């Protein structure tokens, strides 16, 4: 699980029996919940939810996808990593990786696009500079990508 070091935010998820489907593995839709839980932790680390409450601006999920690499079965614990791979003026592209503790392998990958949104005006907006600064502090390599 060395690749976990590439992700600034990693959460641990215990697989529940009820997440399995008729094919005796975790239902594919459940992985989007794992991604969501990692994304919420990422937001918590940056205090984005506080910012949304104070200024009515914040990210909204525009799209997401997943690639399933291996089945996951109960019982298992998963490590779910999240990182931003592109920071633009009003959007963030993020990647997810899910590792199984039981099988010691990468079992799923995903990506999402978040658009920053002004909830009062009802339209997309720029990422506020203070928030962009916080993201770059958590993930300094994004500044290098933007300048190249």
Automatic annotation (TrEMBL):
<dbReference type="InterPro" id="IPR029069">
    <property type="entry name" value="HotDog_dom_sf"/>
</dbReference>
<dbReference type="InterPro" id="IPR050563">
    <property type="entry name" value="4-hydroxybenzoyl-CoA_TE"/>
</dbReference>
<dbReference type="Pfam" id="PF13279">
    <property type="entry name" value="4HBT_2"/>
</dbReference>
<keyword id="KW-0378">Hydrolase</keyword>
<dbReference type="GO" id="GO:0047617">
    <property type="term" value="F:fatty acyl-CoA hydrolase activity"/>
</dbReference>
<comment type="similarity">
    <text>Belongs to the 4-hydroxybenzoyl-CoA thioesterase family.</text>
</comment>
<protein>
    <submittedName>
        <fullName>Acyl-CoA thioesterase</fullName>
    </submittedName>
</protein>
